[in-house]
Inverse folding.
């Protein structure tokens, strides 16, 4: 016991010394705090705060150092341990609590993260021939106890989850454990319920919205082998499961699997593959719209492909209509409504039939831009010059990048004119317009603003499943993985908004988003319909998503990527620089580029100002480095170059971070 050791040893700072030995691997520490019935030591954890809403402590402060250190512990830590390991005083920790960056709560025993979930009896599963073939292929690899990566290529609604359930049952029968990854926290409870219906109390739910006591207790129970199945978001891949036999990465293409806001930067899909290789397990990557990298890996036979081409239980694909919004506004001369005539008519018919609707608008808030009609001034964030979004709920303007908030002005800050225009389209404005058209309709909105509280995802989806609401309106978090049999209409408010993003993956993500949300319609006995509103009906990504033609899109996209030497035909590393003086940041970035140019075979893009050049931390520059696989097959040259820079980089005011395989190239 530490308490006993402190009485026997006279060396100062005993706990700090032992913590240092633990970090260096010389000793193991377990149960660093004890529970006494109800009251225990305070427990510290990081709340779920989007990267665009964090207000970080000032650069170089003790608070920032402690906060960045705690980012590496998703399960949280007791306050006594944080104090011992990091030397963090109560004042430092209380300051982080006051900023909302840290939560402090007492840890109480016997907390069950699934205690609030409704436990339904399991459904009897009868696999169709394609599902049975997929199960047997995976089972063979599991019995050989060897690393085997599978790509489960199933159309939307084809029953991939049933394959996950059956292969998980095989693992449990062999005395092995399973990790199931989902990209969004919103999807974790629904999938966890499916597994709990089948397997009972051996299923753990893991994601960053769990409270600290729940998170720590769940982590320790997994470590003890009490939970055999862990369902959760990306950090679940790091949980200490015993005797791992299977990893599933559902919707493997999703950007949310990449942790890019803090160190360590990692992609959960790649970690899953590496962990599978280390622990000799089968890994299933499931998707109807895979990443280009996964699609290419099955072409080159690095992954074994398993096809599911038919919708589950004979459900038919939905009927898809495309509305040219330019022509719509020209014909109606109504520029105020975000709803086309065809979508309005479809909503009316769906409600009359007693069915439900999903509407996708991939931008939250009310109006993304506030502009003066007199002088043209657009209201921007004082921290990063990004246009502020007006939120009618709460009557605030917000920066979706840094979290800045303020009351909206009543007059133009530049010229004083009173004629301010609230332009653009967010989920709040769509909700308002929908209820103006259909006053009796019941709508639940699901975006970052409505899901900040613990349990909000579960409540919204549960209420919609119980048909308390007729319409589920939301951002991309509603576009994938959700299964509601009574939904027979999906409306995409603006299908091509993502095409304008300056990133080589923009077309791929647009295709995936439109295809996936369309797949939410008609998953039960009733036929489905999809109405896609777009300003670019002739765009290749929109056309392929409309026709649900996956192969045509991916083969053309691979041609273009190959020609331009982008992944999967190259590797990328992003060097990001930030500092208080623009000239210093630019000079450092240019010096790093000069050094990297000496590595023959590398392709440098930049350096240049980042898409958002300034934020709270200072001015930002970016340097992208490519390494074509035909000249650097293993990526060794790129790795050597990045390591060379990392080992030699030093600057008093400019910070550099390195991101291997960045999910976004312009952030």
């Amino acid at each position: 016991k530490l308490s006993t050791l402190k009485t026997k040893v006279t060396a100062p700072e005993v706990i700090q010394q032992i913590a240092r030995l633990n970090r260096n691997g010389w000793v193991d520490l377990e149960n660093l705090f004890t529970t006494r019935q109800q009251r225990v030591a305070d427990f510290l954890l990081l709340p779920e705060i989007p990267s665009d809403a964090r207000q970080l402590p000032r650069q170089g402060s003790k608070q920032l150092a402690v906060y960045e250190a705690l980012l590496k512990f998703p399960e949280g830590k007791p306050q006594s341990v944080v104090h011992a390991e990091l030397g963090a005083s109560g004042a430092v920790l209380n300051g982080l609590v006051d900023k909302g960056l840290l939560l402090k709560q007492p840890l109480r025993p016997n907390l069950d993260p699934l205690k609030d979930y409704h436990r339904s009896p399991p459904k009897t599963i009868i696999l169709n021939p394609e599902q049975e073939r997929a199960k047997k292929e995976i089972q063979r690899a599991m019995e050989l106890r060897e690393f085997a990566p599978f790509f489960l290529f199933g159309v939307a609604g084809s029953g991939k989850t049933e394959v996950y359930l059956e292969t998980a049952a095989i693992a449990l029968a062999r005395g092995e454990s399973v990790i199931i990854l989902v990209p969004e926290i919103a999807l974790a409870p629904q999938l966890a319920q499916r597994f709990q219906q089948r397997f009972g109390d051996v299923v753990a739910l893991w994601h960053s919205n769990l409270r600290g006591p729940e998170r720590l207790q769940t982590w320790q129970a997994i470590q003890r082998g009490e939970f055999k199945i862990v369902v959760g978001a990306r950090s679940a891949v790091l949980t200490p499961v015993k005797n791992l036999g299977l990893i599933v990465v559902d919707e493997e293409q999703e950007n949310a699997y990449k942790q890019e806001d803090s160190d360590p930067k990692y992609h959960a899909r790649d970690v899953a593959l590496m962990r599978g290789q280390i622990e000799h397990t089968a890994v299933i990557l499931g998707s109807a719209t895979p990443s280009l990298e996964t699609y290419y890996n099955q072409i080159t036979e690095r992954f074994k492909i398993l096809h599911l081409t038919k919708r589950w239980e004979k459900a038919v694909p939905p009927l898809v209509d495309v509305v040219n919004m330019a022509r719509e506004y020209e014909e109606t001369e109504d520029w105020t409504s975000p709803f086309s005539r065809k979508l309005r008519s479809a909503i009316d018919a769906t409600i009359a039939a007693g069915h439900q609707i999903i509407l996708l608008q991939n931008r939250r808030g009310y109006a993304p831009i506030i502009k003066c009609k007199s002088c043209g001034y657009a209201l921007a964030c004082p921290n990063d010059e990004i246009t502020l979004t007006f939120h009618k709920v709460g009557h605030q303007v917000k920066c979706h990048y840094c979290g800045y908030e303020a009351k909206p002005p009543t007059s133009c800050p530049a010229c004083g004119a009173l004629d301010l225009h609230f332009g653009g389209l967010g989920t709040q404005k769509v909700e308002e317009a929908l209820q103006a058209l259909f006053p009796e309709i019941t709508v639940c909105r699901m975006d970052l603003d409505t899901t900040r509280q613990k349990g909000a995802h579960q409540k919204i989806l549960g209420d919609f499943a119980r048909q308390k609401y007729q319409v589920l309106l939301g951002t991309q978090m509603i576009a994938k993985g959700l299964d509601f049999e009574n939904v027979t209409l999906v409306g995409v408010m603006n299908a091509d908004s993502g095409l304008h993003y300056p990133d080589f993956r923009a077309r791929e993500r647009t295709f995936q988003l439109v295809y996936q949300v369309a797949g939410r319609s008609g998953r039960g006995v009733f036929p489905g319909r999809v109405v896609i509103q777009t300003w670019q009906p002739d765009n290749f990504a929109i056309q392929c998503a409309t026709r649900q033609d996956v192969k045509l899109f991916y083969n053309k996209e691979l041609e273009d990527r190959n020609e331009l030497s982008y992944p999967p035909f190259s590797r990328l590393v992003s060097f990001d620089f930030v500092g208080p003086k623009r000239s210093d940041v630019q000079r450092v970035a240019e010096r790093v580029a000069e050094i990297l140019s000496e590595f023959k075979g590398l392709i440098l893009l930049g350096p240049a100002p980042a898409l958002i050049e300034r934020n709270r931390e200072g001015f930002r520059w970016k340097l992208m480095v490519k390494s074509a696989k035909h000249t650097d097959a293993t990526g060794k040259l790129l790795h050597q170059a990045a390591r060379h820079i990392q080992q030699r980089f030093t600057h008093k005011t400019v910070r550099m971070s390195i991101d291997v395989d960045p999910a976004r190239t312009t952030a």
